């Protein structure tokens, strides 16, 4: 996806859609643990400051992660989005 598309997207979407897009790209077939690859993942609340940012806990390795952990797309998207707001 060209950077210009990301800029347009991040300007048009609200927070919920941003996170939905990240999830869709990252886990098209369901959430997997970035640590061990297991799909035995349960939701574990949401981020305190970003209510649409879902947190997860892996039942296989007990690792914790969230929508943005270790994602390049998310890093770009959210730098653009939240960088502009300040
Ligand atoms: Zn795991």
Number of helices: 3
What is the general shape? globular
Work out the strand percent: 15-25%
Small molecules bound: zinc ion
* Elements, N to C (H/E): HHEEEH
Structural class: alpha+beta
Order of strands, widest sheet: 1-2-3
Helix percentage range: 40-55%
Multimeric status of the protein? single chain
* Distance linking N and C termini: 25 Å
Q: Kindly state the number of beta strands.
A: 3
Q: Summarize the main sheet.
A: 3 strands, antiparallel
Uncertain segments of ≥5 residues (pLDDT<50)?
none
Estimated radius of gyration: 13 Å
The average pLDDT value, as a whole number, equals: 84
Comma- or semicolon-separated keywords:
86 residues, alpha+beta, three-stranded antiparallel β-sheet, 3 helices, binds zinc ion
Outline the fold blueprint:
Elements: H1 3-12, H2 15-26, E1 41-46, E2 54-58, E3 64-66, H3 72-85
Antiparallel strand pairs: 1-2, 2-3
Description:
- This protein is of the alpha+beta class.
- The protein has a domain at 31-86.
- Helix content is 42%, strand content 16%.
- It contains 3 helices and 3 strands; from the N terminus they run H-H-E-E-E-H.
- The protein has a 3-stranded antiparallel beta sheet with strand order 1-2-3, with no helix packed on it.
- Strand 1 (41-46) and strand 2 form a beta hairpin.
- The chain is globular, with a radius of gyration of 13 Å.
- Zinc ion (ZN) is lined by residues 33, 35-36, 38, 58, 60-61, 63.
